[in-house]
Write a structure and sequence with these properties.
about 130 residues, mainly alpha, single chain, Four Helix Bundle (Hemerythrin (Met), subunit A)
Length: about 130
């Protein structure tokens, strides 16, 4: 019953938190989540359902990077042109590398995607 009594406070916190989270924070959180899912695949590579979990993790990661690609390619994007080009090149690399992993799965190949995501996430957080 105690959890029910706290529910309005938790909901109020969630509302304030959601209203104050920046786009950079959201992007960083999503990239970190993707990195963790990919890293989980590395850690449990011999698990019977690895193909499904690997496919799910790679699809999520690719969706996130496709969203970044769409945003950067948009004429309304305010990033400097050189940065936009660099991001688009990174997305192209991630797409190619993801396809390679899907065709020839190997847990070692996931490390680069994990590292890219974690480094970009850290950069978005100013670390």
């Amino acid at each position: 019953m105690q959890a029910m009594a706290c529910n309005p406070q938790i909901n109020a916190y969630k509302t304030v938190h959601t209203a104050t989270v920046s786009g950079r924070d959201i992007e960083s959180d999503v990239l970190t989540k993707c990195a963790l899912k990919l890293n989980d695949c590395i850690d449990t590579w011999d698990h019977p359902d690895i193909r499904t979990r690997l496919s799910d993790a790679l699809k999520l990661n690719q969706k996130v990077w496709t969203i970044f690609q769409t945003e950067v390619a948009n004429d309304a994007c305010r990033l400097p042109n050189e940065m936009r080009v660099n991001i688009l090149q990174l997305v192209a690399f991630i797409d190619k590398h993801t396809l390679d992993i899907l065709i020839t799965p190997a847990k070692e190949k996931l490390n680069i995607l994990v590292n890219i995501n974690l480094n970009i996430a850290a950069g978005l957080q100013g670390r």
